[in-house]
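In practice, a research group might receive sequence data for several interacting partners and want a quick structural hypothesis before committing to experiments. The following worked case mirrors that situation: the sequences arrive first, and a predicted assembly follows.
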Amino acid sequence: MDPITEYHRGITRRQLFNQVRNGVGAAALASLLGPKAFAAAPSQPAPVVPAASPGLPGLPHFAPKAKRAIYLFQSGGPSHIDLWDYKPHWEKVHGKALPDEVRGDQRVTGMTSGQKQFLTNGPIKPFEQHGDCGRWVGSGLIPHTAKIVDDIAVLKAVNTEAINHDPGITFINTGSQQVGHASLGAWLSYGLGSENENLPGYMVLISQGSGKNPGQPIFSRLWGSGYLPSEHQGVRLRSGKNAVMHLNNPHGVDRELRRDQLDALAALNAKHAEATGDPEIEARIAQYEMAYRMQTSVPDLTDLSDEPDSTFEIYGEDARKPGTYAANCLLARRMMERGVRFVQLFHRGWDQHNSLVPHLTNQCKDTDQASAALVTDLKQRGLLDDTLVVWGGEFGRTAYSQGKLNAGRDHHGRCFSMWMAGGGVKGGVEHGVTDDYAYNVVDQGVHIRDLNATILNRMGVDHNRLSFKFQGLSQRLTGVEPAKVVEEILAS
Amino acid sequence: MLKSATIRSVLALFLLASSPALAEDAGRISYNRDIRPILSDKCFSCHGPDNQHRSAELRLDVAEDGEDYFGAYLAIEPGDAEASGLVERIYAKSKKLVMPPPKSHLELSEGEKKRLVKWIEQGATYEPHWSFVPPSKPELPGVKDRAWPHNAIDTFVLKKLEANRIKPNTEASKATLLRRLTLDLTGLPPTAEELGAFLADASDDAYGQVVERLLASPHFGERMALTWLDAARYADTNGYSIDDHRDMWLWREWVIDAYNQNMPYDQFIVEQLAGDLLPDATDTTRLATGFLRNSMNTHEGGTIAEEYRVTYIADKINTVSTVFMGLTMQCAQCHDHKYDPLSQSEYYQMFAFFDTADIRGMGANTALTKGDANTAPLIRASGQITSDEQYKRDLQQRIATLTRYLVHPPELVEMRAKWEAEVKAGAQGALLEVLSVSPADRSDEQWGVINQAFAKTTKLLGRHQNTIKREIAILEKDLEAGRASVMVMKEKGPRQTYVLTRGDYSNPDKNQPVGTGVPSVLPPLDAYMPEGGPATRLSLAKWLIDPEHPLTARVAANRLWQMFIGQGLVTTPNDFGMQGAYPTHRELLDYLAIEYVDSGWDTKQLVKQIVMSATYRQSSKAPRELYQQDPANELLARASRYRLPAEIIRDNALAIAGKLDTRIGGPSVYPSQPHGLWREVSHFGYPRAFTAQAFYPSDASGLNRRSMYTFWKRTSPPPSLTAFDAPSREVCTVDRARTNTPLQALVLLNDPEYVDAARALAQIARKEMKSKFEHQVDYMFRRATGRTTTDAELDALMKHFGQAQERFHQDQDAAIALVGENDISLAALTSTATVILNLDQVITRE
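A structural hypothesis for the assembly, expressed as tokens:
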């Protein structure tokens, strides 16, 4: 444990202990630890008792534009060629060899490195201009997202060194291709703590698209804590009645009996805390109380019966089916309303090496409406101003076809597109210039380090200053190479 | 007495809080202890050993000038702070001048600045980094309280306590000691008989006898192996991408056996690093090299094999340097180390030791393999240390279980029953016929008809069947071979190693060829070079165990200390370099290291010394103020009190409940976990199915085994263990976190394994204590804590028992749901058992 966290906990535990000792007996401890006691935000002075995770002293480093964030992670590598990176000459060059000088001597994956020819493969559906900003969008595939272009900033020159899924997805989510590092969400939880007294600060939802089923595997390290204390790892929210693992009481134990159990447990633990002197025991009592609250707060979160029909009109009927991307988008909004710091969706199936046309079409159908609805919905509720939404995957796809024309596309990390919305990000802008084949960055490249620095920045975190000492180094999400915040897309 | 001790300790700690360390010789600044940590943390990244990124050609890690740099004395005038440029710069008001520069986001505290000044005033003496100098045997310090120490360890601890005017704590109660010892040495709680015997034994060596008994227990090897599995990143899957299964459990068996045989630690190192290269190599020594093969591997389509071959070697260097030397060598993969004297070319000299081995970037693939799920080179060597007959029985049993799942995939049983209830009314023909047979009486053919219809409603059935068939096919191949396979090291032949520019596999610097070698800051390798040939992995292993090696014994002794005392003397067990923590008791660490070597690397002997000490035997109960002032227990004025490791929490609960299956060794098992966790993230459903993509629980024989045998899938590790900080085992881990979270509460309260344990505990109590409920409750408490209840504790538990009884009386269905029968007192006892199993003291080593 790092000294800062230790210090922080020491203080809060001491306060808690003093209350216990000042005559607030164990019996009263339960009510003392009730929701209200946790309501104080970590930045406010002298909370009565600790929040689940108070964050570091001195953070945020500056006033955050986004208090919370949703990352709509599109696992597998969505095609920037078909969705965002419009080139006027696609029609002319479609089917012609990709010029050698465009491809250069850069490495390609083992899947197409042996290919005899590299035919330029334009978008599978035509692009059109949308919004007041006149953004070109592959709206044949993503008609709903096309409607929110005035609210989003499209980054067209994002890039990564990785060319395969495992290193690529590990890189973008943990800042390193090597395993063992902490994920973005874990960093946010570690640095900023949780604002909600009844839910974890970092939640993860997983879905599988119909584009390619099964999609590429994903890994718990993508939301893992790496070298950070493991309490900062993402907590999976699953469909079904145990939305959080082992949430429900066993058969035969109702809520009243559970309360009795916890009261007995708290009484005994408090006695033992007095006998041993160990403040860790009081922290444990508090964690049991949070678990108890989660038993109602999580079902309250996942029960969509209070959503009007209009919700499902905008998110789509899929949102009624637990476990779908659309349902997860809706849950993400509900978590934002409840002050969860960071929610990350992982949607699998964006890996169109083959069956490009049907698979990409399906994949977009699964995600387009709900992604757009989420932004619109947050905006209507006045939440978009301080909620950051990020959309994108671990890399893009090649402008040349894998196999026959329109058959498929290989991985492409040299440039790809992502978008961001809300939370201090300008709407209706695009950033980054790629070459005529959407193959190389020409200007304003955004390395995924820069992307992560920008996300942290919007949350009030200086990526240079959020570090954790491990194996002799000050580890950072953005690593040792310099990273720069993408200033051009920031709203003042 | 207690009170005045408290006040004294608080005062002492308060005074110490303003000094850099808990100092023994107040006033005198030690470079190693007080100064280097400051310079390293705040200055070395620009003025340190990294040749490629150095500002102003100035090094602050060395005093004198070198060929192409200035030493620290350029900026420091020993004895004269005012004349020292360094002092001027750290106190500079101008943002342009002040050091460290603001853009580095590093800052010196006032205390740190003062310390630097004081050090310069005292002559600015440099010392070699403490851990790079071989330990010398310290003299036992003189102490005032001659009565307290039991052995040498205690004199070192007491010396520091006395310097801080704190008295050691009293000895823990016998019951606590027995539980502590048994958990520490075997990972299991003591039995009631063991407790009774120990409490009744008033002889002087009663405690020593217990220590001997536990060190001789076969569970000692399991307990020690558990920690080694983390260090060695043992797992049952490949880790990257598809993350299908591999077979390395034989290596785990080797580790348990090595600890139980008390294999000397030097041999333990040599066999694991180079067991294949020994002149008298056997399958058993080759098997030991599985240690190096525990690296993750990939067979992701599109992989560039060389990229991953390099990654696997980097993982081996990381593991070897961390677990044997406490060095963070991986920092030097891309550039010279920022803090430690480890250059990039030295990194690639280490690399060269592994570069000549047969390491394949593209791993075996369980969907395609014709023979083995493991990636070559490998051997089939089970007969060497384990029974092949038992192995075959294990395989057959698993095949039988999976064959049953082909018809009844566990995840779908409930769904299918629901579907059956819905379609029954409308069913016709063959389906109607089989549905009218009661489920218990249906033949597999009849289930086949049902499944055929059911498959039309869900893709999952076909996918499960396809996956299960793959699992069975691979197990059948193993059965045919008759012996278990394990991945091992094997040399391939000479290969020229180059420095890789910025660590990039595709960018070898042809101007920088390197051969095998070790960092120049450490002892030379020469003595271990084979005649006429370059140094090999065997040379590396022998070099590590050289008694003059400054790191090997210290790092190992520190880890043992950490296991039994709760935290290392060096609190950064992964880093003994400049950025690592200075030892809390440096002389003690050196003493232990030298004892270890002098005893012939006798691990049991060293463990025995630690647990026989008065330091170890202290009570963990202490005044609250001491807990607050010394939360990490660096002074050792009490025993550390800490939550048990994940595996031991589960094993402990199963043992308390009388359910633990203590069989040692064998292939990994699959205790229950929530349905779907694996397949939701895996490549489950791919037509050419892979193994380990969906979770199939063991039959009864595998549900209650010790947790170290739980199948470890790296991309979705055992959830009830990771909730308690078990690592993913993707990379080597030598210090697990100990967190305290609501998810842990949910596991202990609601995980069916723990609910079953509570019920089983209630049933035992009922059986053993036929008389009063009070006795039954007290019995459960005793099983769980190793001591009897106090009156207040019994009152609290009986109050709950009464409440529960009342509730179950009103709702008898609830009692049936909880315990399977209308037995109100059993249900109430079960609810009380849940309270007991969740007690902080039950999951804590006290």
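Before designing any experiment, note the following. The radius of gyration of chain B is 30 Å. Confidence is low (pLDDT under 50) at residues 1-24 of chain B.
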